[in-house]
Give the backbone structure.
Amino acid sequence: MIGDPVEHSISPAMQNASFRKLGLDYIYLPFRVAKENVGAAIAGMRALNMRGLNVTIPHKLAVIPYLDRVDDLAEKIGAVNTIVNDNGVLTGYNTDSAGFLRALIETGVDPKGKNVVVVGAGGAARGIVFALIGNSAKLTVVNRTLTRAEELARRAREVFGRAPRVSALSRPDLAALVKEADIVVNTTNVGMHPAEGESPVPCELLRPGLTVYDIVYNPIKTRLLRDAEAAGAKTIGGVDMLVWQGALAFEKWTGHEALVEVMKEEAIRQLRRG
Ligand code: NAP
């Protein structure tokens, strides 16, 4: 894995647990790589014949020019988080986006035709919005800074020929949108450690029949997820997305089905350790 910083990543423990359990001769290591060394790091990957890399913040865009091929969805999103080296041919993928979707589907929720409200329009939101549009969800993106949601919608229109609706993050607008929604996704930092008491969606808007997906994974159970559970809504946590993006990368590198439960247990162990 390359990124900056990488010291607190739980991916090494999660991936190595799955390699060990399957008896596979792989090891996953984090490397802190400065911005100006991204090209050299990818050249190093080729020279050392590494099978794969994960790429994390802030290099997900910067690696693209150094690759031989980029998968269609990763190209549309404009971000690569997984690289596979097939005998010197490097291909970039985006398993963040695919992992988000897989965690949703594994919970028994098919986004096709569903009304989905995505709160947030930052880095993580883009892959999520594109995955949902690509799977025919009816989307609204709500963001504190409206222009950022508009920019994301513009990009979606360029890529898919259709754009999500956008709205500012005001209480009355959110109430009206959540009332009509089947799925609400939080992609903001709200509720993330250390502001664990905060939630982007007031608890009285939550109800049975709604699916609430919070991509924040620290804490494991956010205020939003606790409120949603108490209101009888279905919940999906950020750990599931994190584990599935890792599992999909694992499968691309090794050709083996990932041990998702082993990875999830290890991820939770690491997060609890802090
Ligand atoms: P980002 O690019 O910095 O975007 C942050 C988003 O949060 C923006 O939409 C921002 O709105 C909004 N926001 C921040 N503070 C807010 C506040 N006080 N009130 C309302 N909105 C607020 O961050 P990111 O990379 O997208 O990451 C967002 C979260 O997702 C983080 O908690 C990260 O850990 C998590 N994440 C999880 C996974 C996973 O696998 N589970 C993967 C990626 C990210 P403005 O545009 O108005 O600033």
Residues 96, 120-125, 143-145, 148, 169, 187-190, 192, 215-217, 238, 241-242, 245 surround NAP (CB under 6 Å). The chain has two domains: 2-93+240-273, 98-236.
